[in-house]
Amino acid sequence: MCARVAVAMSGGVDSSAAAFLLKEAGHDLIGVTMKLFDNGDAGVSGESACCSLDDAEDARAVARLLGFPHYVFNFSRPFRTQVMDRFACAYERGETPNPCIDCNKYLKFGSLLQRARELDRDYVATGHYVRLEHDQGSGRWLLWKALHPEKDQSYVLYNLTQDQLAHSLFPLGGLSKPEIRAIAEEQGLINARKRESQDICFVPDGDYAAFIRRHTGRDYPSGPFLDQSGRVLGAHTGIVDYTVGQRRGLGVSSNQGRLYVKEVRPQDNTVVLSDNASLFARTLTADRLNLIPMDRLDTPLRLRAKIRYRMAEQPCTVEQTGPDQVRVVFDQPQRAITPGQAVVFYDGDLMVGGATILKGES
């Protein structure tokens, strides 16, 4: 297959190696760097870990070396509405979102795919570590974990549609990070040893609450810390400062030992604290369900699931309870099931789908 491909190039080694592999396979490429925000919009002084002039120049240099055109597209408006606004609104609802999931769905495989089609491109390719396969029997596109589990990124791609998957390429799913760096060095790519960023791109200092205050222009009033019986333990500094399971920065003490955030309640501007044992629950409900191998779950399935990106999958039973809702019962209690995070399901290496957590239940 020789296809016309728009390859998303962040300026990092992964997307640059992906471009090389696609070029070697005979595809007709253009390189695309997405400008997602101005540093001033995110309150970043100097260059951030993403969207910098250096990143765009690194991507351009790789495209020039490999012999295909490179473009920079300004997607700052959809990024603001579909990612940054959603991020801030989720925290205002007492949730803890994963903005990379929204960025993939709405930007990389949304706005960028639409722009690629306008440029007569058949596919968008990225440097995600995941494997894509077309199942002849069902006619559906399937997502499989990367061959090397330490780099697997299927969790943040669970929300893609069949149409998005049908027009996507993921060249890195069978390779390890050392193999990628070796390819980049052999080809003389300038970013072969470039450091990876582990931060949310628009909050490079990790201070989510400060970003939300700048982004919304709102202040979030103090309110009471409560224990599970409703007794006031102290005062919090604003609900956007907290997430379920948090211990640091609470500024309150108890004769019962360490305290953790159990619940953030914007409806009455309270934050409920508990001991660590009270954070564990076996059951969760979630909505905005997206399934990859099928349209719906007709019967409960035995699967494995994880409730955060960096955690091991846990055995569970998943039951669809509504058009886009599921109930998940884990074999063992899970710590700090957090509203707004994604629960993602697996059957072995096959990524089955996922949903947005509403709440955990004991």
Count of helical stretches: 7
Question: Residue-averaged pLDDT, rounded?
Answer: 94
Could you name the CATH topology of the largest domain? Rossmann fold
Indicate how many domains the architecture comprises. 3
Gross CATH architecture of the largest domain: 3-Layer(aba) Sandwich
What is the CATH superfamily label of the largest domain? HUPs
Read across the widest sheet, the strand sequence of neighbours is: 12-15-14-13-16-17
Give your account of this protein's structure.
This protein is 24% helix and 30% strand. The protein has 362 residues and is of the alpha/beta class. The protein folds into three domains: 183 residues, 3-Layer(aba) Sandwich (Rossmann fold); 55 residues, SH3 type barrels (Roll), CATH 2.30.30; 82 residues, Elongation Factor Tu (Ef-tu), domain 3, CATH 2.40.30.10. Strand 8 and strand 9 form a beta hairpin. The N and C termini lie far apart (51 Å).
